[in-house]
Fold these 4 entries.
Entry 1:
Amino acid sequence: AQRVTQPEKLLSVFKGAPVELKCNYSYSGSPELFWYVQYSRQRLQLLLRHISRESIKGFTADLNKGETSFHLKKPFAQEEDSAMYYCALSESWGKLQFGAGTQVVVTP
Amino acid sequence: GAGVSQTPSNKVTEKGKYVELRCDPISGHTALYWYRQSLGQGPEFLIYFQGTGAADDSGLPNDRFFAVRPEGSVSTLKIQRTERGDSAVYLCASSLGPSGSYNEQFFGPGTRLTVL
């Protein structure tokens, strides 16, 4: 069975400091991985997907198949990055399996 | 343009009652997904529609849960004989086609269901 693990429930960082959210997965096939974000009082939205290898709002995530990880990183956290972040794995037609989420709090 | 909408935004009901939760997907989106999010957890898949048919209902927890999408647009999630453990936020998402790396799922605001 596939599984997504986010070991940190809460991550508190200072503005300007680097932030890294951990995500590990178990999946027998070739994974499709995503990071979703939910800002306060907003709906869940896609942040980035591994296949596009893009940087969104300064965030990047690299798929490491050897370590079965897809950690999310940003070199300099901003206050507007405070949100709930979910790592998710997709089967081929799109059924998403989410991790439990990491709450990020960026303090000035 | 209009995003995914869900009604009601909040529903409080008593144990044993029947509830219906509605989802209006983005116009033209053929794929529709229902998820359930319990407190402190990530969303959990319930069911996926491609057009009018349920292509995967493996996430429905038991036969008290049922969902329909008769015209391939609006979907209704129906819960019979509600239990306190059904209390959660029910999320709906839609995508242009079967989702994956190339078709983004767009989420609605959710319906918060409380069973007393």
Entry 2:
Amino acid sequence: GAGVSQSPSNKVTEKGKDVELRCDPISGHTALYWYRQSLGQGLEFLIYFQGNSAPDKSGLPSDRFSAERTGGSVSTLTIQRTQQEDSAVYLCASSEPAGTNSYEQYFGPGTRLTVT
Amino acid sequence: QQQVKQSPQSLIVQKGGISIINCAYENTAFDYFPWYQQFPGKGPALLIAIRPDVSEKKEGRFTISFNKSAKQFSLHIMDSQPGDSATYFCAASIVFYTGNQFYFGTGTSLTVIP
């Protein structure tokens, strides 16, 4: 399929462990976003990558959270020393290059993270 | 600081009725206002979107009404169906030269009763 894919779909981890969440954006999409969605809540912006520009990390809640995007495509969100409050669905989205007429974000199915 | 405020938090509508969800924003630099629909276990999907140069956009049973002076926009779902039961998010975007940044409302859980 040509959509945004995320892995794993579910992740259960013990408090204090590190986790890595992966996002494969739609081919050709230069913008990539990470959001966090807690149970019954809206989408909380975490980080935004656009091409080769420095990422906008303004939404990362603490220094335990980091993300990278290799080769302008796949992105990995890393949460170190996980806490129970990190339990949420982590959503990735991608969109076409800036300057195009399409502002649409395409979302992946998300990774449900549970910290026990 | 919530850039986009959405209401109501939940909504129950009879089949065939009209569902109305409202959003308000403060930043006049926003230039793109999408609505997303999210079913349980799925990521949000774009439903309909509007630019600030028009006051209304209709696609099938879904209509966005946009009031630039009041800095408000709303989603109307006509002839609501049980299959419309989902969570709806409004959003607003500012297009920077490097791309878009999106701000989301807190979501509305819609239940359409058969």
Entry 3:
Amino acid sequence: AQTVTQSQPEMSVQEAETVTLSCTYDTSESDYYLFWYKQPPSRQMILVIRQEAYKQQNATENRFSVNFQKAAKSFSLKISDSQLGDAAMYFCAYRIFDNYGQNFVFGPGTRLSVLP
Amino acid sequence: EPEVTQTPSHQVTQMGQEVILRCVPISNHLYFYWYRQILGQKVEFLVSFYNNEISEKSEIFDDQFSVERPDGSNFTLKIRSTKLEDSAMYFCASITGGPTDTQYFGPGTRLTVL
């Protein structure tokens, strides 16, 4: 079964500090993409960062970076210099290509609180 | 920047009634998706749609659900006879289908079944 696990249901971080959200996944596919989505209280899902599995270099997007360990099937998100606006639910997801097109699998989410 | 839109933002209905949730995907996108999120729980895949037909569906997407792209722009999710457990946020998403694409999500419709 294809699954995504986020072992931290809740995390908190002080403003301006760094926090790492963990994600592990299980797939037998070799070609896939990994994503972190942010869902603020407004409930809209917003893409934070994306990683192609064939790329060894970790993706970085401003204050957001990932630690992608393909052999361990781990894909953690690091948020540097945390801001109050980073408070949200964060979902890890991966996308595979199957015979019918594409499919996304989401993890259960981690609720991040940012403390002033 | 183009975006996925959804209407209504909030729908309240009585159990057993039919509801139609509407989505307008980004215009050049080819794959369309519906997801649901029960309050406090994870985002769950319902169905994907490509080339005017369902390409994949989850076990949640039973005979009470149907999808349609009636006019080439709207993408609808119909629930024929709503149940209390259908109360959730329903998200529409779309993607062009290329290998480096990312899903763009709509803002969601909150469905409340009384």
Entry 4:
Amino acid sequence: DAGVTQSPTHLIKTRGQQVTLRCSPKSGHDTVSWYQQALGQGPQFIFQYYEEEERQRGNFPDRFSGHQFPNYSSELNVNALLLGDSALYLCASSTGPSGNTIYFGEGSWLTVV
Amino acid sequence: AQSVTQLDSQVPVFEEAPVELRCNYSSSVSVYLFWYVQYPNQGLQLLLKYLSGSTLVESINGFEAEFNKSQTSFHLRKPSVHISDTAEYFCAVIKNAGGTSYGKLTFGQGTILTVHP
């Protein structure tokens, strides 16, 4: 039973560039959420996707956007990268937007230089 | 809004000693509570959760946590730790609306547990 998978695992981008991170949810899960974990901090909720729509959003600027595909996989896009966007980006999945058992992937490490 | 406070940023302990990682939360509504563990350079793994019922919940690897509603706490304990327990531990909450969660986790800042031989 595959868990939550994310790609790429590591990447380096330059300020001002754009990045796309990808996530496949755990088998049987239809809801995907994204979190940002800065170094030494707890994860912060970015947004949640269910039925291909953004259902909830945290306190992140519009530079952060996402998408969910019919197969429930998801992408996180960040435009106009800032140095402060350097972080571990975690994808999480659950059954339904109200699912209370949430599983996380290994994360994508983004470094902005 | 919810907030979670983990009272210790780092907890060093010797192998086979007991440990307690403290977590307090603040919320105007009922919440579900979770502990996640993060090993170096890895994602988060669900350790245990409290949804309802018995206030004492246990994990498969010997950790337990007790929900205390009056003190708004959910402390994590283990009677005897191993070297392999060295990791960062995160306490988290989700809003609970009549048995249905809002699906968004709010995390504490994390506690780094270091087990020394």
